[in-house]
Amino acid sequence: MEHSGGIQASLSGRYATALFGLARDANQLDAVSQSLSTLRQALIESADLKRLVTSPLVNRKDAGKAITAVAGELGLDPATTSFLGVLAANQRLKAIESIIRDFNILVARHRGETSAEIVSAHPLDDGQIAALKTRLKSMVGSEVAVDLKVDPAILGGLVVRLGSRQIDGSIRTKLNALALAMKG
Predict the structure, then answer these.
(1) Mind giving me the DSSP string for 16-84?
(2) Which residues contact 116 (CB under 8 A, 6 or more apart)?
(3) Which residues 6+ apart lie within 8 Å of 129 measured at CB?
(4) Measured between alpha carbons, how far is 56 from 94 in angstroms, rounded to an integer?
(5) Distance (Å, rounded) from C-alpha 157 to C-alpha 15?
(6) Which of 25, 43, 54, 125 is deepest in the core (most CB within 10 A)?
(7) Is the CA virtual torsion 90, 95, 100, 104 positive or negative?
């Protein structure tokens, strides 16, 4: 098994490592990655789905049935659907967002890419994403897999997390620094 750094130390990391190993061995990394991306987007867009995976009031059996139905509606691959059933049975659906993040890191490492998390105030278009990838590639010297998130609270600009480095060009941070400087 390949070295996966500190990812295996967390619960989400252990589940992500297990899913990664299964997907890699079955030559299904692309299919599982696409399904997880679809699921992640659905979690962002659907408050009901978000409640389903985070509510402690939904029992294992009901959660399993509901998540299987959701997986069918979203057109997720069989491996991901089965994995979600395991998460529901183990009452671990609430960790799905962290599992997706850790899985994406493992896939990026497997492909020789560096992972970057990019937070923007508004969704980025394809041209902006391509320009960001090019700029990040020139910084790190390898291909960069980006995990895009939207957080209107940053007001504008970007926050880029690249490994242990964070580049915070958000307007919120600049305004906070200005307010602090004005206090003297």
Answers:
(1) HHHHHHHHHHTT-HHHHHHHHHHHHHHHHH-HHHHHHHH-TTS-HHHHHHHHHHHHHHHT--HHHHHHH
(2) 136, 144, 145, 146, 147, 160, 161, 162
(3) 146, 148
(4) 9
(5) 33
(6) 43
(7) negative
pLDDT tens column, 133-177: 999 999 988 899 898 888 999 999 999 998 788 999 999 999 999
* CB-CB contact of 32 with 49 (8 Å): no
Tell me the CA distances in angstroms from 8 to 65, 81, 102, 103, one per residue in order: 28, 22, 9, 11
Token pair in block for residue 165: 């480095």
pLDDT at 3 over 70: no
Residue 103 to residue 12: CA distance in whole angstroms: 9
CA dihedral 62, 14, 50, 63 (to 10 degrees): 0
Give residue 83's pLDDT. Answer: 97
User: What is the DSSP secondary structure assignment for residue 154, as one 8-state letter?
Assistant: G
pLDDT digits (tens, 9 = 90+) for 57-109: 888 899 999 999 999 999 999 999 999 999 999 999 999 999 999 999 899 98
